[in-house]
Write a structure and sequence with these properties.
With 151 residues, the chain is an alpha+beta fold. Helices cover 37% and strands 27% of the residues. The chain has helices spanning 2-29, 42-53, 65-80; strands at residues 84-93, 96-106, 115-123, 129-139. The longest helix has 28 residues, at 2-29. The termini are far apart.
């Protein structure tokens, strides 16, 4: 008799569990109501403009020269696949920054025969690379030719 009671109780529990699962499944299948995005009005635009002029947006911090230099080297390496060995010039301009970066283009033995290149790298005021170009290619062991006028 106790065996029959245990079997009936376990069947009741199973039916109860199954009914709860089917209710959860049905509710999860019910599509959710979608709402259309709210349209912007002139008032919204005016409010946003007023908050911008009121100084609620944080001012962007001007990067320090060393941060710009590190960023430029990393960005050039990512784009060209060549690591910068040195920076031979670094200048802030009205449009951002201009650097001349020396890279190893072709490694040779002996090392003094390796091919080096100078790249002019341009960055915006935030330090993001906007362009680069190779301006010179030379062997590592060669000195620049003397120029007249002391340059």
């Amino acid at each position: 008799m106790s065996n029959t009671r245990n079997t009936e109780e376990s069947q009741d529990l199973q039916e109860s569990h199954d009914s709860r699962e089917s209710q959860e499944t049905r509710s999860s299948r019910t599509p959710r109501k979608r709402t259309a995005p709210r349209r912007r009005t002139e008032t919204d635009t005016d409010t946003e403009h007023d908050s911008d002029t009121a100084g609620s947006t944080p001012a962007r911090k001007k990067p320090k020269p060393m941060e710009v230099l590190r960023q430029a080297r990393a960005q050039l390496a990512e784009l060209t696949g060549m690591e910068a060995e040195s920076v031979s010039s670094f200048e802030q301009t009205s449009e951002g920054w201009v650097l001349e970066v020396e890279v190893l283009e072709l490694e040779r033995v002996p090392d003094t025969m390796s091919l080096m290149a100078s790249y002019q790298v341009e960055l915006d005021p935030d330090g993001d690379l906007t362009g680069y170009r190779r301006v010179r290619r030379y062997e590592r062991g060669r000195a620049d030719a003397r120029r007249s006028g002391g340059h």
